[in-house]
Every structure is written in structure tokens, then in C-alpha cells.
Write a structure and sequence with these properties.
Layout: E1 2-3, E2 7-8, E3 39-42, E4 45-48, E5 69-70, E6 78-88, E7 92-103, E8 108-109, E9 115-117, E10 123-127, E11 135-139, E12 143-147, E13 153-164, E14 170-175, E15 181-189, E16 195-198, E17 205-208, E18 214-221, E19 233-238, H1 246-266
Parallel strand pairs: 5-8, 6-15
Antiparallel strand pairs: 1-2, 3-4, 6-7, 7-13, 9-12, 10-13, 11-12, 14-19, 15-18, 16-19, 17-18
């Protein structure tokens, strides 16, 4: 239940399926303030439906498929694509990471120890919203862990974080990719003076976002012999515009005017 004037409340009802695999829930409230999800657990895996809104004159049918579970990513024939997007701000680098994983077998993969290393000193981690149990969770000081249920089909999960930015004109970022990543792309918002380099990756191409922002894009795809996917990489941004003396002069003038105002009031 969620309503602006009353906040949010969560509740849970449980039922056991019959011999045909069916369970029913009755007496549920209807209306736009209520949403329901049907979920079922099978060993370490959890399967869930999309959010459901009930109308007053009809019910709803949620169909959940439950599959055999494996902890081995190779056995589940899982492959992923990872996108890393960075925006240069005044005092931080803002990163957004999106991972898309697909499973080609009829097995569900539940990660055990799967992780992604992030650059040292990262902060302000926030996981993206997901309609499934698959998710990233912060591993303090190291990066993120992959958790949840990767059922057959495609799963999408994301997160964002920040890195402090110095006033130097270049910066490097060290990443370790999660398991079985078949393709990775690094995308950087870039001023005309900026350059991007990732050793061993394709030569960066210049593109633009839907809003017209200039970006530099490079990628790498796994080749034969890289059965476990792509490994670590280091991205380097150069030619980053550095703040001029203007803001320090402005800060000094503002402080001086404030001091004069205080002195005048005291006089």
C-alpha cells in the first residue's frame, strides 16, 4: 500500500499450492493505492511476478515458472553485457553501471561469490530498482556483489556510485568485471578536449546522447579462449577541463563582502 498522504506499508500473505501447483488469495483490497506481487521460493531461488493492481470486478492470474537451480555459472550457460557510463562533475565522477545477463539453458543460476570490483575510494553506492530478485549489493571497500535469482531469459540490474575528483587534467579508473561478461562498453561524457583510452579495447568513437551530449564510447568483446568472460580493465580520461582561478576569486570576494557586512553591522 502506498499513498502520499499516508506513506507506505507492506504486508505478506502465504499459501501452499495444491497438487496442480495452484494457490489462491482472497479478500485483497483493490484500487490504485494497492499493488501485489506473487512470489515463490525453490531452494535458494526466488521467482516473482510483475506488480499486479486489482480491479473491483475481477481477479488476476499470476503464472510463475520454477526451474532447477545451479550455483555454477558455466552449467547455466549464462552470458552478460556490462555498460559503464561516467559523467564528470565539479567535484566527483558520477558512474552508472548496467548489466544484462541472459541464460540459454533451462536452469536458474543463483550466484555464489560473484562480484564486480570498483575503483578504490568509491562512495554513494545506490542499487537500481529491479522487478526481479536479481540485484547488486555493496561490498564495502571492494565493490559490489551479485545476488538473487537469474532465471532462464534475460535479467537487467544496475547501480550507481561516485568517485572523488581532483583538479588534475587526467584520471584512471580500475574495474574488475563480474563473471561471464561477453561484452563490455565504457561510455564517458566528454568535453571537446577530452580523450578516452582503455588498453586492449577498441579505439574510442565519438557519439552523442539523446540530449545532444558528446560522449566517447569504447568496447571489448570476448574472443575464443576467454570462456570465463572478460577480465579487469583500466579506463583513462585525459584532457579533463580543470577549474580556473575564477571560482576562488569569486569565493574570496564573497567572503570579503561578508566580512565587511559583519563589520558594518558591528559598527
Amino acid at each position: 500500500f502506498q499513498k502520499i498522504s499516508e506513506g507506505e506499508e507492506k504486508s505478506e500473505k502465504r499459501a501452499k499450492t495444491d497438487a496442480a501447483g495452484k494457490a489462491s488469495f482472497s479478500g485483497l483490497a483493490t484500487g490504485g493505492d494497492y499493488q501485489y506481487r506473487v512470489s515463490s521460493s525453490s531452494g535458494p531461488a526466488t521467482y516473482a511476478s510483475e506488480p499486479i493492481q486489482l480491479k473491483g470486478d475481477a481477479g488476476a492470474l499470476a503464472l510463475l515458472h520454477v526451474y532447477p537451480v545451479t550455483r555454477r555459472v558455466e552449467e547455466a550457460s549464462v552470458g552478460g553485457i556490462v555498460y559503464v557510463y561516467v559523467e564528470t562533475r565539479d567535484d566527483v565522477f558520477q558512474f552508472e553501471v548496467l548489466a544484462r545477463y541472459g541464460t540459454r539453458s533451462n536452469l536458474t543460476w543463483v550466484p555464489d561469490g560473484a562480484s564486480m570490483r570498483l575503483p578504490s575510494g568509491f562512495k554513494a553506492f545506490k542499487a537500481g530498482e529491479s522487478m526481479t530478485d536479481a540485484r547488486f549489493e555493496e561490498d564495502p571497500g571492494r565493490g559490489v556483489k551479485m545476488l538473487g535469482t537469474f532465471a532462464p531469459g534475460q535479467q537487467q540490474l544496475s547501480f550507481r556510485f561516485q568517485l572523488p575528483r581532483s583538479e588534475e587534467g587526467s584520471s584512471s579508473f580500475d574495474f574488475g568485471l563480474p563473471p561471464h561478461v561477453a561484452e563490455a562498453r565504457f561510455i564517458a561524457e566528454a568535453a571537446p578536449s577530452m580523450e578516452l583510452e582503455v588498453e586492449g579495447w577498441e579505439k574510442p568513437q565519438t557519439d552523442a546522447t539523446q540530449s545532444g551530449q558528446r560522449v566517447l564510447v569504447t568496447r571489448r568483446q570476448a574472443v575464443r579462449g576467454e570462456a570465463n568472460g572478460l577480465g579487469d580493465f583500466t579506463a583513462r580520461l585525459a584532457g579533463i577541463p580543470t577549474p580556473g582561478p575564477g571560482r576562488w576569486i569569486a569565493a574570496f570576494i564573497a567572503a570579503a563582502l561578508g566580512a565587511l557586512g559583519f563589520a558594518g553591522a558591528a559598527w
